[in-house]
């Protein structure tokens, strides 16, 4: 590339330096990844303390109870004994219970063992007397207790083997917590194992060579590994949700492969056009590299919106997502050109003969050109049909309900879940959700004792609520308890404080918080994304249209989510039972993630269109050229994302299913209806007005684009370049 056409934008300079110092770039990256993993192992990731995870009135109740009862969590364990035919009065039933007591009694890791056979513990026997529970507390904190629970579980399992006529199962804060944590880790590992082959297959179809496949995949995985290590540092300031590793893998693999794919595909195209290896890298850095830089910054800004949610899990997800996108962007702009400079045409090593004949390094994609022609020939019809389809898909969003996932979010195959559900059904008929009222007052005063019952300065009163826990019935009961019953009782006692917590209260309070914060998050993302696109493309129309198209894309994804999970249309196919709502953290999370990711395609496509326009093409021709030359790589990138996201739909945890399906549907909709139909149709209709910038905004800085050809004369109304 001659100096006269050499680009000096930031991405081009980064690519040029990396290509000239490939050893420093590559080995520096490897050192960074190793150091990040070492830091993570040394520092350790701090997870959210579940005793401080709630918000609103639930958090107030938790604080009152923690001050009044400062002792450690009792770590209660249960063993359920159940018979379909006999009652607890039967000698065989009692013998089974005594066998359970004998199996755990005397274990130094337990305390406060309570037998359902003791008359004082009548609440441990169900109304029909066919189900009983043996309870005890594990000594110490959770981390210490979980190292000792396996021996106890094994002893209880042997009791069940000795009494085949009875159901004997253990559950509790330690046994269930440890088992479910292990299940999640195993499922995450399985998701990773499944997503990588999908990614390899798509990349093979794109490049047809093993080395070309390995470069973006290894770069993406190394970026994910580095992020998993580095999140340990901010976690000590903002504790993270235990699901953060899934989010990092999900976003990191998809974005990392996408950025490398855009870059590498452009480099191969420039080589096929006859440029030298070095010139091809510089051209890719100045064009696709610039698109990656703009897209990455836009995604990071979108992810930053989660910091305003006020909810601990969402804030942690936002920090982790920003880090993995930033690291993926850095790797694509530095390590990738360094590797390409070192490998040269060796990147084509390991060609798969049949696949090699299918791929095209240069020229326009004939398949997408055939689809695009009718769109550009009748843009009004195409825009109307595509817009109507997106609006129709988005309509279910008007009925969206959110709920905190509880036991119903887990499949019956999950460890200890059948036992927990049997306990719930036997002792509450499956229709009672527990609430806890925390009371801080002089509990010895006659006024307080007449309002409740027991002693001293802090009391905890357990009150069952009708319903399933997060449904309308339970929420109505909670409102009555909070707004009517408690103000009329404890509220009349001078100086008394009270608050309600529990699963129903937790869900209601988090819903209220997220509804208050959602406008702030959405406003932040929309405002800053618009500003960045405005500066990048120096066009009000391009920036505004990107916002509208992305909102339509997100709305359609929300609609699919509501139909599949809230209405339960996909319950049979995906193997889940609807809880009547969407995971409460998901709408904000999906909005910022999808808004960010959809910018990948928007920036990449529009940059290519603008590049053709700057070379002298008419807007209509530039649209056709830009989309047909990018459609193949965009559809391949989308296929990678859809494959990675869809893998999470196979996980048994309902929240992960919702996240996987929602993100996969959104990317599929965005890469097809939005970018292949609605975007070109609207650009065709607007013509040169696509590049309009008012005179009072001409002071905006110019971010240099690659100019491989002569400039086109400005239109009369001066849609600025």
Care to describe what's here?
The protein has 721 residues and is an alpha+beta fold. The protein has four domains: 1-43 and 208-358, Multidrug efflux transporter AcrB transmembrane domain (Multidrug efflux transporter AcrB transmembrane fold), CATH 1.20.1640; 75-178, 2-Layer Sandwich (Alpha-Beta Plaits); 363-398 and 538-721, Multidrug efflux transporter AcrB transmembrane fold; 412-508. Helix content is 63%, strand content 7%. The chain is built from 25 helices and nine strands. It has helices at 10-20, 22-43, 56-68, 91-104, 142-145, 149-162, 173-207, 210-230, 232-235, 244-272, 277-286, 288-304, 312-343, 353-358, 366-377, 379-394, 417-428, 446-451, 472-488, 503-537, 540-566, 571-574, 586-614, 619-648, 654-686, and strands at residues 76-82, 110-114, 131-138, 167-172, 402-403, 432-440, 458-466, 497-501, 582-583. The strands form three sheets. A four-stranded antiparallel beta sheet has the order 2-3-1-4, sandwiched between helices. Strands 7-6-8 form a three-stranded antiparallel beta sheet. Helix 21 runs antiparallel to helix 25 (654-686). The radius of gyration is 30 Å and the shape is elongated.
